[in-house]
Write a structure and sequence with these properties.
There is one protein chain. The protein has about 400 residues and is α/β, with parallel strands linked by helices. The chain folds into 2 domains: about 1-185 and about 380-394, Rossmann fold, CATH 3.40.50.2000; about 205-375, Glycogen Phosphorylase B (Rossmann fold). It is about 45% helix and about 15% strand. It has a 7-stranded parallel beta sheet with strand order 3-2-1-4-5-6-7, sandwiched between helices. The chain is globular and about 65 Å long. About 45% of the residues are buried. The mean pLDDT is about 95.
Length: about 400
């Protein structure tokens, strides 16, 4: 099976959708799919067998691609379309695997080039327009909604990543058998090309965990982006109550741009907890994993959203107690049996953290339950079997 994958993201970069795209592509390769992979010029090259990465120009002068819809993405997608037309003209593809907005282009050209279409739906595109405050135009939002619905009906297979998105899609499509829920539940290290030669500041650390946390102290870890919806303000403010009750607690927050880090450092100073929190900024995946491995408790303080964070699946498999906010983004997967679920505010977050610290037996039981849940529902074997079933259906 020869496939054209279209991923309109800075691939690879260490954030949600590129991680999802990487693992989808990796498992497809292992299942014997040969792929041309069309993506933006920005991003780190990865090493996946049977995958030929094709990039549009970088346009570095225009800056980096940010999360969500943007004028820059619209500009870059023009070049994605042009390159896509060229590739479809000179090659005969059995399948086009379109991620995110690339499905619009793939849907348009499908009758001309006669390929099977996989729509990898990481989120609802019209919802993104409002969630990221890109536009308030009802006309534009409704246009995207109409296009998205047409793509869902036209696609030969649809992938959604969480129950909320699955339920949304099932209200639109009629052929439910072409719809596959494949959670972003794989988290093995990303294989980058020429990794040792890359001069990225993200791969450098200026401290050792052992120097920050003493032997008799508890280490809390959050690793992820610092976008507003991640609830980092809740977490930082909660530390004031945590430290008031137990001064032998330290927190590592790994991720974020320099501007975001500066913002939350200021918040930590205002709450008198700056000595108890280490902001690392954006780090390489291996360091984020190292922090989590050394943690006593893992955290997911997310305050908004409906898609399940990728980190949740790794946290389930970590054998560590997890404190997470009780929002639908989490509760699609998490229950009180496998985590400490708390309301998304500083006081309740602090109470959940302190309970996880104080009740070792309860923490151990929840962590064991979490691992069992992961192995049953979300393991690599389960993921692979779902994707294999999809490919066999085409």
């Amino acid at each position: 099976m020869k496939t054209l994958v279209i991923a309109p993201q800075p691939f690879f970069s260490p954030r949600g959708t590129p991680f999802s795209v990487y693992y989808r592509t990796l498992i497809s390769s292992e299942l014997g799919v040969k792929m041309d992979f069309l993506t933006y010029g920005e991003g780190q090259d990865v090493d996946i067998p049977n995958v030929n990465i094709i990039r549009i120009p970088r346009f570095k002068i225009l800056g980096n691609v940010k999360l969500g819809p943007s004028p820059l993405k619209l500009f870059l997608d023009i070049f994605i379309i042009l390159k896509m037309i060229w590739l479809l003209t000179i090659n005969k593809y059995d399948v086009v695997h379109a991620h995110e907005e690339a499905v619009f282009f793939a849907w348009f050209f499908k009758p001309i080039f006669r390929y099977k279409l996989i729509y990898d739906m990481h989120s609802s595109l019209p919802q993104q327009l409002t969630n990221f405050q890109f536009t308030t135009s009802k006309f534009l939002i409704n246009t995207f909604k109409t296009l998205e619905d047409k793509c869902l009906h036209s696609a030969d297979a649809v992938i959604t990543i969480c129950p909320d998105l699955r339920d949304y899609v099932n209200t639109i499509i009629t052929r439910k058998e072409k719809h596959f829920l494949i959670e972003n539940s794989i988290f093995e290290p990303v294989k980058q090309k020429n990794y040792n030669q890359q001069k990225s500041v993200e791969s450098e650390l200026d401290f050792k965990v052992e120097d920050f946390v003493k032997n008799d102290e508890q280490l809390l870890v959050y690793a992820g982006t610092l976008e507003k919806y991640q609830g980092i303000d809740i977490l930082v403010q909660s530390m004031k109550n945590v430290i008031a009750a137990n001064k032998k607690v330290k927190l590592i927050i790994a991720g974020g741009t320099q501007d975001q880090v500066n913002e939350f450092r200021k918040l930590a100073n205002e709450n008198g907890v700056s000595n108890y929190i280490k902001f690392t900024g954006r780090v390489a995946q291996k360091y984020a994993k190292e922090f989590s491995a050394k943690a006593d408790i893992l955290l997911s303080p997310r305050s908004d959203g409906t898609n399940t964070p990728l980190k949740i699946y790794e946290q389930l498999a970590s054998k560590k107690p997890l404190v997470a906010t009780k929002i639908y983004s989490h509760t699609q997967v998490l229950t009180d049996d496998v985590s400490f679920l708390v309301e998304p505010n500083p006081q309740n977050m602090a109470e959940g953290i302190l309970l996880a610290i104080d009740d070792k037996n309860l923490s151990k039981q929840k962590a064991e339950n979490a691992l069992k849940l992961y192995e049953k529902e979300y393991s690599r074997k389960v993921y692979t079997s779902k994707l294999k079933k999809l490919l066999e259906s085409l």
